[in-house]
Design brief:
By secondary structure, the protein is an alpha/beta fold. It is built from 19 helices and 17 strands. Strands 5-6-7-8-9-11-14-15 form an eight-stranded parallel barrel, surrounded by five helices. It binds 1-deoxynojirimycin.
Length: 578
């Protein structure tokens, strides 16, 4: 199978694809225009296949020896024995299991779902297999010097593209009943739109069917940051409103194919984060004239339109689907009781969760503190767009890893808002992990590679209550990602030292207990997804930062359960309504 597209070479921007079109034959032509520095243009025509596209923009990629779908190997029963209890009294001798207490007033409702999550580029590998087109992350990892601190790529990752049956069998063996994965857009549509790649659709068919075979509920995310490269190079990706139609078309193909066997859908993952990747590094993608400071908000605008359009489409295909977008962030604790810090907290909500949650759950439009800024350059949503966006979320799916103290900038909020060169502009709030006094942190720190992440589980009940009271999601709240990078895990070289992950274990126990507290206070939490099913490519941190409840030996691609996997399952089983 071959896919082709139109390529143009733009002076000053090195290579950028100028127009999106695709051809159903293997011999289609492509127009390329090279503009010489302002003195005229030279046009030529040539053919561009998916392979050409890879060669020009990414170059050679690595592969792994297991390169066809494999049946699961038997899971050794010894690896399913839970780890010894964490605490041992010194006397009397021998392993002691302390009395397990249970708070009888806590309970997870019977239909509470608990699972694990991963995302295509972070786990699949097999990046060129069966017609996948490149995404922006193939360029970021292969071509942009120092973008990934470790020079890692997703070429092989966890080889999930071929080992997914084993991966699903393993979580089922643990007793985990839900698996959240993302679909790679550029597998389904190698150039982002146009010709559909049936091999990719068949792959996800089998992945979904395998979930059902093991009694695992599949949950699918349409977009977890791996934007088809062609769309970035053609029109600037999320910076252009052209993305709305292309995303909707992609959603149509996927919903049509899987709606009868996947009930839970997430459209876009963490728009605050992926829109924050703009501006992308210069000279690798299509150049843009949009000022840097505006780019995340143009992206967010189109993300809201794309999400809501896909939501309405999905519901028209199958009204029973649960469709939501995933947002992210932590509780925002005023660092002092000053009114300036209280104002800073309001700004922090407005420029984070409320940026997407107010439009979807409350008003169809931005919160006023954000609108004061974006109305200077973004078009107003039309009344049709407001109607489309408003109500386009069935559950409030939140990736809630940690929390922060929030305070006003040293120069004051007003001075910051008036000064676009202030480093905190346009949000004009500041954050810290330290309590006032600058001595104690909010909780134990994760790995130094994730300075944004401390264990702050004490703040989870109030955070969940805040979400419920503020956005009143009709389908409740899902903690759609949570987890912690065990500090210095990458320095551990022996398997037994890797497999006992005490901070992550405690994090899951305390976090689930915090959810139980919230539930007992009437907060409607419907499910959790631990990040992650196993260690994977942590984006710009490469493989150096570990979030897995399983360890993966990247040389052999063998998987091993860590202690946290058992702690997560145990605390749920202990409190799950029978
Ligand atoms: C959220 C993102 O969705 C995921 O891709 C990432 O690996 C985790 N956070 C951990 O940083």
């Amino acid at each position: 199978m071959a896919f082709t597209a139109v390529l143009a070479l733009l002076a000053g921007a090195r290579l950028a694809v100028s127009q999106n079109s695709s051809f159903p034959t293997s011999t289609a032509a492509a127009n390329a225009t090279q503009t010489s520095s302002g003195t005229g243009s030279l046009t030529t025509t040539f053919e561009l296949s998916v392979d050409d596209f890879w060669d020009i923009y990414v170059g050679p990629v690595s592969t792994f020896s297991i390169n066809t779908t494999v049946e699961p190997t038997a899971i050794p029963s010894s690896s399913l024995i839970p780890p010894p209890s964490l605490y041992y009294p010194p006397f009397p001798g021998g392993q002691q299991v302390p009395l397990q207490t249970k708070n009888e007033s806590w309970q997870f409702p019977k239909d509470f779902w608990y699972g694990v999550a991963g995302a295509a580029y972070q786990i699949e590998g097999a990046v060129k297999a069966e017609g996948r087109g490149p995404s922006i992350w193939d360029v970021l990892t292969h071509r942009v010097t120092n973008y990934i601190v470790t020079n890692d790529t997703g070429d092989v990752a966890d080889n999930n593209y071929y080992q997914y049956k084993e991966d699903i069998a393993r979580i089922a063996a643990l007793g985990i009943k839900t698996y959240s994965f993302s679909i790679s857009w550029s597998r389904i549509l190698p150039f982002g739109s146009g010709t559909v790649n049936e091999a990719a659709l068949a792959h996800y068919d089998d992945l979904i069917d395998t979930c059902h075979q093991y009694g695992v509920t599949p949950m699918a995310t349409l977009y977890h940051w791996d934007l088809p490269l062609y769309l970035q190079n053609t029109y600037g990706g999320w910076l252009s409103d052209s993305i709305v139609a292309d995303f909707t078309e992609y959603a149509r193909i996927v919903f049509n194919r899987y709606h009868s066997k996947v009930h839970y859908w997430f459209t876009i993952n963490e728009p605050i984060v992926f829109c924050g990747f703009y501006p992308l590094p210069q000279n690798y993608f299509k150049a843009t004239t949009i000022p840097d400071v505006e780019q995340p908000y143009w992206c967010g605008h189109h993300a809201l339109l794309a999400h809501s359009s896909a939501y309405r489409l999905g519901k028209s295909i199958n009204s029973s689907l649960s469709i939501s977008f995933k947002t992210n962030g932590g509780y925002k604790i005023p660092r002092t009781d000053s009114s300036a810090d209280a104002d800073a907290v309001q700004r922090a909500w407005a420029f984070n969760e409320a940026w997407f949650a107010d439009p979807v759950f409350l008003t169809g439009d931005y919160p006023s503190l954000l609108k004061d800024f974006v109305s200077g350059f973004l078009p107003d949503f039309t009344s049709e767009q407001i109607a489309q966006i408003n109500g386009s979320g069935d559950i409030f799916a939140h990736d809630a890893y940690t929390s922060d103290f929030v305070m006003a900038p040293d120069s004051g909020i007003a001075a910051c808002v008036a000064n676009s060169s202030n480093e905190l502009y346009p949000g004009c709030y500041n954050t810290t992990k330290l309590y006032a006094g600058d001595y104690w942190a909010i909780g134990p720190a994760g790995d130094p590679g994730t300075p944004w992440l401390n264990k702050a589980t004490d703040w989870v009940p109030v955070f969940l209550k805040y979400i419920q009271d503020t956005w009143k999601p009709r389908g409740g709240i899902a903690v759609s990602e949570f987890g912690i990078s065990e500090p210095y895990e990458e320095l551990r070289t022996s398997l037994p030292s890797i497999l006992i992950d005490p901070l992550r274990s405690q994090y899951y126990v305390d976090y689930m207990q915090a959810i139980l507290i919230a539930l007992s206070e009437g907060v409607n939490v419907v499910g959790t997804l631990a990040w992650s099913i196993y260690d994977n490519l942590e984006w710009t941190s490469g493989y150096s930062v570990k979030f897995g409840i399983q360890y993966v030996n990247l040389t052999t691609q063998e998987r091993y359960f860590k202690a946290s996997a058992f702690e997560y399952v145990n605390i749920i089983e202990k409190y799950l309504e029978k």
